[in-house]
C-alpha cells in the first residue's frame, strides 16, 4: 500500500501540473488576489467573538464540497483501503495556515474546531444522484437550468437550508446574512464551474447572443429567488433597505459574471474555474479602491465580448461538423 508520504508527494506533483495548466499570467493575478481576500477575511473574522466560529464552519464547508466532487475517490476506494487517512492528513495540512492565524488571535477553541472539522471532510461519501433527489431537483428547477439541477443534487439541497438557518440565527448582525450569502455564492461557483457537454450546448443554443441572454435570465433569476430570504434578513437588520439593495445588486452581478466567465473559456474547466475565482476574488477584495469601478467595467465588457466570441466559434464548429456529417450520409445513401 502506498505510504502517506508518497501520496502527499503525488498530490504535490498534480498541483504543480495544475498550476502550469493555469498559466503564469492567470496565476500571477489570481495568487495575490486570493491571498489578499483570505487574509482580509481571516483578519476580520478572527478578532470577532462570533466571526471566529464562522471560520472553521466555512472552511469545512469548502473542503467538504471539494472532497465530494473529487474524481479519484472511487479509484482510491478500490486501490487503497486506508485512503481516508491520507485525505484527512491532506485536509489537515491545508487547514494549518488558518489554524495558525486563529491561534495568533487567541482563538484556541475555533482553532481546535478547525482541526477537527477539516480532516472530517475525508469521511464524506462522493456525490451521488439518488432517485428522490433527481425527482426533487426536476420539480424545483427547469431542466434547461442544468447547473442548478446538478448543483442541487450535489449538495445545494442541504447547503441552502443550513446557510439560511445560520443567517436566521445571526440575523440581528449584518455579518450573519452576509456570510450566508457568501456561502451560497460558493455553492453556485461550484455549480457553474463545470462545463456541460457540447451536445447539450448545441441543442440549447439559438445563436451566441440569445443563448447567453437565456443563461443569464435563468441563472440570475434563480439566484434572486434563492437569495431572497437572505436579502430579507439583511434588510430587517441594521443594514436597512439601502444597504440590502446595494448588496443584492452586487451579489447578483457576481452571479452574472460567473455565468459569463463560464462561456468565455468553454469548455476548458481549469480556465473557467480560475477565471471565476479571479472575478470573485477581485470583487470581494477591492471594493473602495479607486480603480475598482474601472476594473469592474473592463471585466464585464471583456467577459461579454469573449463569451460571445467563444460561443460563436464553438457553435460554428458544431454546425460545420453537422453539415459534413449530413453530406457524408447523403453520399452514402446515394451510393447505396
Automatic annotation (TrEMBL):
Top-level taxon of origin: Bacteria
UniProt keyword annotations, A-Z: Membrane, Transmembrane, Transmembrane helix
Keyword Transmembrane among UniProt keywords: yes
Transmembrane region(s): 21-44, 50-66, 86-104, 175-195, 216-235, 241-265, 277-305
Protein name from the UniProt record: ABC transporter permease
Organism: Hymenobacter mellowenesis
Lineage of origin: Bacteria, Pseudomonadati, Bacteroidota, Cytophagia, Cytophagales
Amino acid at each position: 500500500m502506498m505510504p502517506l508520504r508518497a501520496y502527499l508527494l503525488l498530490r504535490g506533483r498534480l498541483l504543480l501540473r495544475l498550476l502550469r495548466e493555469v498559466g503564469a499570467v492567470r496565476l500571477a493575478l489570481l495568487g495575490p488576489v486570493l491571498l489578499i481576500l483570505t487574509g482580509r477575511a481571516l483578519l476580520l473574522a478572527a478578532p470577532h467573538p462570533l466571526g471566529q466560529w464562522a471560520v472553521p464552519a466555512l472552511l469545512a464547508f469548502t473542503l467538504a464540497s471539494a472532497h465530494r466532487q473529487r474524481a479519484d475517490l472511487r479509484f482510491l476506494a478500490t486501490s487503497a483501503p486506508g485512503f481516508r487517512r491520507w485525505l484527512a492528513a491532506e485536509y489537515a495540512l491545508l487547514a494549518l495556515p488558518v489554524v495558525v492565524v486563529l491561534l495568533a488571535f487567541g482563538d484556541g477553541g475555533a482553532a481546535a474546531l478547525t482541526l477537527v472539522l477539516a480532516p472530517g471532510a475525508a469521511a464524506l461519501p462522493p456525490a451521488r444522484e439518488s432517485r428522490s433527489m433527481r425527482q426533487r431537483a426536476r420539480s424545483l428547477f427547469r431542466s434547461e437550468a442544468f447547473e442548478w439541477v446538478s448543483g442541487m443534487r450535489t449538495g445545494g439541497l442541504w447547503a441552502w437550508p443550513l446557510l439560511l438557518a445560520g443567517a436566521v440565527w445571526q440575523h440581528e448582525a449584518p455579518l450573519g446574512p452576509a456570510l450566508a450569502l457568501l456561502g451560497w455564492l460558493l455553492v453556485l461557483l461550484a455549480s457553474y464551474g463545470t462545463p456541460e457537454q457540447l451536445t447539450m450546448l448545441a441543442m440549447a443554443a439559438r445563436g451566441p447572443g440569445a443563448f447567453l441572454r437565456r443563461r443569464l435570465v435563468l441563472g440570475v433569476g434563480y439566484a434572486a429567488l434563492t437569495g431572497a430570504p437572505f436579502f430579507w434578513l439583511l434588510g430587517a437588520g441594521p443594514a436597512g433597505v439601502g444597504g440590502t439593495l446595494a448588496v443584492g445588486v452586487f451579489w447578483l452581478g457576481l452571479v452574472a459574471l460567473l455565468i459569463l466567465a463560464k462561456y468565455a473559456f468553454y469548455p476548458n474547466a481549469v480556465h473557467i474555474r480560475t477565471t471565476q475565482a479571479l472575478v470573485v476574488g477581485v470583487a470581494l477584495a477591492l471594493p473602495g479602491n479607486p480603480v475598482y469601478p474601472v476594473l469592474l467595467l473592463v471585466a464585464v465588457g471583456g467577459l461579454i465580448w469573449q463569451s460571445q466570441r467563444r460561443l460563436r466559434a464553438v457553435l460554428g464548429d458544431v454546425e460545420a461538423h453537422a453539415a459534413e456529417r449530413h453530406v457524408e450520409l447523403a453520399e452514402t445513401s446515394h451510393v447505396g
